[in-house]
Amino acid sequence: MLRPLAVALCASLALWLSAWAEWPAWDFTQILLKAEQGYGNLGNAKARLLAWNELMQSNSSLGETEKLTLVNSFFNRQFRFSDDSRNWRQTDYWATPVEALIKGAGDCEDYSIAKYFTLRRLGVPSDKLRITYVKALQYNQAHMVLTYYASPTATPLVLDNLIGEIRPASLRKDLLPVYAFNAEGLYLPNGKKGDSKKLSRWQELLQKMKAEGFAVGEG
To answer: Are 158 and 130 in contact (CB under 8 A)?
Structure first.
């Protein structure tokens, strides 16, 4: 008979493996090749892409809290803030992590998207992560953050490009939630849930990532 500790360890390992196996391995050699075919000489951007791959390859065994800190810090350093009108000559453009890393810049959506997919690749389940639209009250404008739920009823932690520190949502009185989404669905403040497949920009983003060589499923 297995001892209780051994049973617990086996269960934890099984959960970790199932989360990791949700997506097939990403062939980063092919991803870089596709990027070079699309953008030409990547210059300094290649180092940013390789650093991103190294982060994902080397840190899958960390605890989820450590992963949050690492990923939040990485993208807050790698990107400079630039709105879509300057970066993409569009009013609202959702960049893939590759697009944003090649630019070395992005707006709040790009930070949140890159953090979401990186944490997903590191094995954090999608039901613990939500890309969340909020109103930034201090700036009186729409904003996007990534939120993490340790359990379904837990107070979420907020990963934000406005501040470097990850804080509980209860301490972010400057943010007013509007709606959130992930692979599982669309979440409204009144508790109602919808289908994230109806979010056209989310579906367009998934298709772009697949074209870049990423196996991301429904997100």
So the answer is: no
